[in-house]
Design a protein that fits this description.
Elements lengths: L2 H20 L4 E2 L10 H18 L1 E3 L3 H9 L3 E3 L2 E3 L4 H5 L7 E3 L8 E3 L3 E4 L7 E4 L3 E4 L2 H13 L21 H11 L5 E2 L5 H15 L1 H6 L3 E7 L4 E2 L1 H12 L3 E9 L8 H22 L5 E4 L1 E5 L6 E2 L3 H17 L3 E3 L11 H17 L3 E2 L5 E2 L4 E3 H19 L5 H4 L1 H7 L9 H6 L15 H6 L5 H15 L7 H16 L7
Parallel strand pairs: 2-12, 7-18, 8-20, 10-11, 11-13, 13-14, 13-15, 14-17, 17-18
Antiparallel strand pairs: 1-7, 2-4, 3-4, 5-6, 8-9, 15-16, 19-20
Helix pairs in contact: 2-10, 5-6, 6-7, 6-19, 7-9, 9-10, 10-11, 11-12, 13-18
């Protein structure tokens, strides 16, 4: 590499480090959300959701506690099938807070849900990982640690998500302990706990209490559960028990129907949107029956499917419309809204991946989402999290952060002094206005290469995947663990040791 190329790379890296130091804990949206539907259409969707809940009903399976809570609240309960009078479920949601703080281990990383706030979080749930050297393989605990560290280092990811990938080399009934420890030890950003069994949710809360303190957690949210509906119109006891565990501790829940139109709902988008609205309201209502005022996020994960193969598809025109529409329904309830991020069915970080990811992410930004996780790393319809894709997506989150800042039209931005200094028929590269703004005027994409062909060739003719591969490896080499009190660390490790010793390994 020539000295000029080296200097350019060092300049890009210095700019990236500057961005990392200046990045906010979360984003403030200064552009309006797009309003797709008029009042008549929105009322039509809401009324259809009410019809579903009153005529078709929704099941809660094998959770007598949840069924009893709804029975006492006035729902009609027939076995495991619930039906509600029109407007009843929405009324039960009324105590859910409109805005609230999620506290991080480092108070400077606290994030705000709702309002005009936007939070980006990492991918969630992949059993496989991939990178240019190792290819696709089962995820391990080492991979989980790596993605926690990469999330911690990214200036544009504010939330660590939860199960970023499944550490398949650890027993199923014990891996949640290692994951929660990694969230607490290798980063100090907000995170999610386990939801795969109520006792694992309890373990997650117990470990959080070691770090944050039981008294603090009674009145402050520090952890969330990601609750998925078993669509169509079913909650299983694993999800409702985990939901009740977090809500009962006055901690957070993200309620997210995951619906593929044509499989878990009718194929038409208005039916899918209304069904998702009905499903998510029931989950929100349950959190409030457990603990009025418990923090909750109105979630949505709506997409299409290939009606020939049955495979999920992402970044489609139909899913764009669904995201825009359901965001309006969440705003009418006044609740923080979550939707998916950089989603793709591509197996590698290729043109298809970035095309679909952009087509999925941009509607989330336009819709005014408050919480976008799956914002970095998603591949293969969520089966894989990719190292290269992760850093590519994270950088794009930075570009989108610049978009939602909007434009500030004032004297400085109109640059009257620059025109006076430069006059006519010249350039503005050397004027004082440019010198004041050159580091902050434009978002600088570290992974993109805008150099002439000759310079790009001289530097090795790398494509973006190759540059991203080099970038995530560099980030891991430079990672420095955030500080933690030794006594807290020892208490966490002791808790993990005792809990693991109390049970035999289970691999399914």
């Amino acid at each position: 590499m020539s000295r000029a190329s080296l200097r350019r790379r060092q300049s890009r890296e210095a700019a990236a480090e500057c961005a990392r130091q200046q990045a906010p804990a979360f984003l403030k949206r200064c552009i309006p959300a797009y309003e797709l539907l008029d009042e008549e259409a929105l009322l039509g969707l809401e009324q259809h959701a009410e019809w579903l809940l009153s005529e078709i009903g929704i099941e809660i399976r094998e959770d007598p506690v949840a069924l009893q809570l709804f029975r006492e609240a006035g729902a009609s309960v027939d076995g495991e099938l619930l039906r509600f009078d029109r407007g009843h479920v929405r009324a039960l949601c009324a105590t859910a807070p409109k805005t609230y703080t999620m506290h991080a281990r480092n108070p400077a990383r606290n994030i705000e849900f709702g309002g005009d706030n936007l939070i980006f979080g990492s991918a969630y749930g992949s059993p496989f990982v991939s990178d240019l050297e190792g290819g696709r393989r089962y995820a391990t605990l080492a991979d989980f640690h790596n993605f926690i560290k990469l999330t911690y280092q990214s200036p544009w990811l504010h939330h660590q998500s939860g199960t970023i990938c499944e550490p398949t080399d650890v027993a199923v009934n014990k891996r949640h302990l290692d994951m929660i420890y990694a969230h607490l030890r290798y980063s100090d950003k907000p995170f999610m706990g386990s939801v795969t069994a109520p006792e694992r949710a309890e373990d997650s809360l117990a470990m959080a209490r070691i770090v944050f303190g039981e008294a603090f957690m009674r009145d402050h949210m520090v952890i969330q559960g990601n609750i998925n509906v078993n669509s169509p119109l079913v909650y299983d006891n694993t999800m409702t028990a985990a939901l009740r565990t977090y809500a009962g501790a006055n901690q957070g829940n993200v309620i997210s129907p995951f619906i593929m139109a044509g499989a878990m709902s009718p194929v038409t988008q208005p039916a899918l949107i209304a069904q998702a609205h009905a499903e998510v309201m029931v989950g929100i209502a349950l959190t409030q029956l457990v603990c009025p005022g418990a923090p909750v996020v109105y979630g949505s994960f709506l997409t299409t499917m290939d009606l020939k193969s049955g495979a999920p598809t992402f970044g489609t025109p139909e899913s764009t419309l669904a995201t825009l529409a359901i965001s309006q329904l969440s705003r009418r309830m006044g609740l923080p809204f979550r939707c998916g991020g950089h989603l793709t069915s591509s197996k590698i970080a290729d043109a298809q991946a970035m095309l679909e990811s952009t087509n999925a992410m941009n509607p989330a930004i336009m819709a005014g989402a408050n919480f976008i996780f799956q914002a970095a790393g998603w591949l293969e319809s969520g089966l894989t999290i990719g190292y290269e894709k992760f850093v590519m997506d994270a950088e794009q989150c930075g570009a989108l952060a610049r978009v939602i800042e909007g434009l500030s039209v004032d004297a400085d931005q109109l640059a009257v002094d620059a025109y006076r200094e430069a006059g006519t028929g010249t350039n503005f590269l050397g004027v004082q206005h440019t010198m004041r703004h050159y580091q902050t005027a434009n978002f600088r994409a570290e992974l993109s290469d805008a150099n002439p062909f000759e310079q790009w060739s001289e530097a090795g003719s790398e494509d973006m995947q190759q540059r991203a591969h080099r970038q995530w490896q560099k980030m891991l080499r430079e990672y420095e663990m955030p500080a933690m009190d030794v006594a807290l660390d020892e208490a966490l490790l002791d808790f993990i040791t005792r809990r693991k010793a109390s049970m035999q390994d289970a691999w399914y």
